[in-house]
Write a structure and sequence with these properties.
The chain is an alpha+beta fold. Helix content is 38%, strand content 21%.
């Protein structure tokens, strides 16, 4: 019995140490991957949609292409559309994301549904956009928003900045989902942003 109690305590200590390391060291860094202090601090389109978010991530990457050259890659995003340029075996039903601009997927309008699961049933809606500058997705009840922003650096370079804001629901099974998102979102988002960068730079 004493040995079992010792093992339980030891495992609890390990779990507590892992959680503490994530919250104090890993999480603050992944919430601002690639972003500058000014990009993290400033207000951006869509911030007003989600009040007091539990998850507020601003990520950024510099792309060697103009906003006009990157914009078409953003507009056509979505499962059952051109894909999300991330890990297709996870979020696109194993179907490869598009490697070209798809003309028939270049439409965008307010209220347009953007599917984010392979079955096309779950996703976000277009809440606002300014062509060649930014596109905002949000959930129906405004408990999550995702901004894609293009900001020119010079004549040939652009900053792609994303901001994901989510208000968690602390009930089962949603809590398990949000915990998984909290830890895993950086891997999917980083892959997606680098996928956009690769495609846009190759085309340019």
């Amino acid at each position: 019995m004493a040995r079992r109690a010792f093992v339980r305590v030891r495992n609890l200590v390990r779990v507590a140490a892992a959680v503490s390391a994530y919250m104090l060291v890993v999480r603050p860094r992944q919430l601002r991957w690639g972003a500058k202090d000014a990009e993290v601090a400033r207000t951006m389109p869509g911030d007003e949609l989600v009040n007091r978010p539990h998850f507020n991530a601003t990520r950024a990457v510099t792309i060697r292409a103009t906003p006009e050259a990157i914009w078409p890659w953003l507009v056509q995003m979505g499962c059952t559309r051109a894909g999300l340029y991330s890990y297709d075996w996870i979020d696109n039903g194993r179907k490869p994301s598009a490697e070209r601009i798809v003309p028939e997927l270049q439409q965008i309008e307010l209220g347009q549904f953007v599917p984010l699961t392979p079955n096309g049933k779950w996703g976000m809606w277009v809440k606002g956009f300014e062509p060649d500058r930014w596109m905002l997705w949000g959930r129906k009840h405004d408990d999550a928003s995702l901004l894609w922003s293009l900001e020119p650096v010079d004549a040939t370079h652009t900053r792609l900045i994303t901001r994901l804001r989510v208000r968690y629901v602390f009930t089962f099974p949603w809590l398990a989902y949000y915990l998984l998102q909290d830890v895993g979102d950086i891997f999917m988002m980083r892959k997606s942003m680098l996928g956009i960068k690769r495609r846009a730079e190759r085309a340019a």
